[in-house]
Structures
1.
Amino acid sequence: MKFVNILLDKIKNLDTKVVKVMKSGFIFSFIVCILSSMILLTYEAIYSLPTLFYIGISLFRTSLSFAVAFFICGIGFDTVQKEIG
């Protein structure tokens, strides 16, 4: 529980520039996630090509990886920025 409180405190005290970069990264990840969902929906409804399924799953995993990377790098960059300045 202590770790969760520390993480929430760090998120609340992020710099505004870092928050803007994180938000744009989340929007990019969300757009890629929507694209992968559309591809998977196409696979399910219209075409049953295995290649289409693997493309959709691969894009979905990529979008999740981008979202997590933006979150972790944003917190790390803010921490380094506060330590320097």
Note: Residues 50-84 form the longest helix (35 residues).
2.
Amino acid sequence: MTNRPKAHRPSPLARMWVPEESLDAPVSGVRAYLGSRLLLLCVLAAFTGLTAGLASGLFVFKWNEWNSPSFGAFIAPSALLGWLALRPRHAAVVGAAALAAAATGHFVGAQFTEYDQNNLEYRAWAVISVVLGLLLGWLGHTIRSRRLIARACAAGVLVAWICVPFYLGLDTEYYVENTNLLTRFLDLSAAVVLLSLCRGVAARIAALVCAALFLWPLNIVSVLNSMLLWRAGGGL
């Protein structure tokens, strides 16, 4: 009786890079229906983004030359709609549609608040929403990747991005003074939902590690974003 050679199993570190055997996460009927209809998905993205931006403009209104102190209403819709898309390009498009609609909703909502919002800043948001929306939609789609490290990094970036205001709030009260328990709960809930979409316990742990590593770089992105808004609003 001959001994069969044992199948070579990659190390745990190597398995993070090797594509899994399953081609993809199971495709639900809803995702299959929406994912094959880009126009319908864009309409859904526009409606969802507009609703989220309007809510942020009405209830978390102190934006001015800084970013909104609540990021979840802007990041989560683009990422979740990108997660629904079947193709990376479609995910990027619907992500941009969702974030552009969210910026529009914030503009409308801010007109009904007592805070004197500088409307010139939305010239910058028109550009930012398209560029970042493409990225957010693609990251949302990447959460479905067969590679553990890819979906962990995508989920980690999204979770960290939503949590940037909490991180900045450790040094300044600006990012927390115009939020309340409800908005903080919604932001953290959005981060938990995105983390839960990342398949596998190991992938979720890796995503949390990535989130911790990306917090500081995304803080720099937030500062640069604020500078662009300041210039668009008439700053020298």
Note: The mean pLDDT is 81.
3.
Amino acid sequence: MTRPTRIRFTAGSLARRWLPICLSVLVIVFYFVFLSGNAINVPFADDIFDVLKVLSALSLAEDKTTAFHILLAQHNDHRTLATRLLYWVVYRVSGEINFRQLTFLANLALPLLFISLYMMAKSHKMKFLVLLPAALILFQLRSYGIALWSMAAFAYFYVFFYGFYSLQYLHKVTGMKFLVSVVLASLATFTLASGQVVWLVGLVSLLHQSLVRKQVSLLYSLSWACIGLAVLIAWRSGLETPNTLSSMLTNLFNSPGHHALYALTLLGSAVTESSVASAALVGTTALITLTIFSIRSFRGPDLRLELCCWFIVLSVMAMVFGRSFTSVDYALSSRYSFPSVLLLTTIWVLVAVRSDIKSYSSFMLIVLFTLIYCAGSYSIYAKALKPYLEKRVQMFDEGKYWAWPHPIKETNDIVAQAISLGIYAPPARPLPKPAILVQKDPK
């Protein structure tokens, strides 16, 4: 008869394992409690067009071919097929679309990304101490502009969720892992336009394993390139956009400095919403750090952390091509800050793992710094979120569903159709104010 396994609590295990685990869970729970107090069942902006309008059209579709074309139709410069399928599944399972529920489902990508970082940090003996600062950076309010906006949250959170796990499955690739990775890369592609860069980063991963490490057949790289090319051709088929490759390259050559500053600002926007100089400095530091560690680890057996960071960087570069017509300070907008937040989170794990940090004092200093950063975000960005939520509640109470630059009549008609089809049931008016709205500012 085997003896039951006993969990032994020692001072060392408490400091290295149990305390950081409990604190990380507490940080995550606090974030979702905040969401619970402020998420509302009201469509906003692209929710109207990419959720309700699409689901209404699917409900009225005469055949599967029509339904497929509805799912595949472009949304701005994106193909959101993967997310539209999720909306449809949620609708079929629950019987209606609830935007409060969608907000939680979208934000579930964050714990899944956190688990991905854990998988890449498992080799570190103090991995749970490594992950505590990661939790403090990732689960905070810098990205308040999309955290409570279900369509945008699905787009920005899930494109990286799919991309990270696609690169995970390419590590020590096998036939089955390759197929799973292809599916995930395809989902990333059909979630947000920037997700297409995962095919390039995945190819680098496979070439590294075949040409540098001599571990797998070059056939994987060739197959990946062919499949990726086919997916990208399908993605671009019938796409109508002024952002053609030639126009984007022309814009880049005409104003390379503007594009470079825009990219660096996006990369560092996790630390500020008001200073281009500060964001660009952080972005430059992050890019230099990533480059140094990538060179040092080039011949190493595991480049997942580096590749995930480069996936974020290249995604940001893709975002620049689509947004560079705006002024640089627009890159500080909260809705575009999540790639920077995820980059800083992943770079911290990269530095800790590759440098094999083991000093408790170093960890405590980083934890203190990231704790101040996390707590400060709730203080600073909750105030910025307040008028944003107040406006949404006010317009709903007035019977207006808003999506710039569309007229209210158009958006109201779309929501009215979804209501008549039983797809969406709005809450009673007046809508109770989210928890953040009843907090009084200190005098």
Note: The longest helix spans residues 360-397.
4.
Amino acid sequence: MKTPYGIYLPGKAEPERRDVDWPHDPGYDRIRDLIRPLLDGGKLEHVTVLHNGKPADMFVDEDFQDKGLPRNDAATAIYRAYSLKCQPGTDPETLPAIAGPAIIFERRVWL
């Protein structure tokens, strides 16, 4: 199954778009093998986000705060979208931010 995803990097407004041919449920090992090199070997942290109006899977380096990675504004906006939709009027800067690379799939892969 063709599975599009985007690689969101700090300082870039647009993601690098790629596709991978995966089954409906790729499993942890396939996900890890694809994503860890994109995170420079970092530990995977999974976050469910609202992207393009539907639930999607985001993966970031679990230790991005400890490593002092630069803020990723595009991924942060996607990460915060659901909270802001549910709580209109919330100051976005009171919500957590994402730093370092973020990989977002255009369908649910973490099943």
Note: The chain has a mean pLDDT of 94.
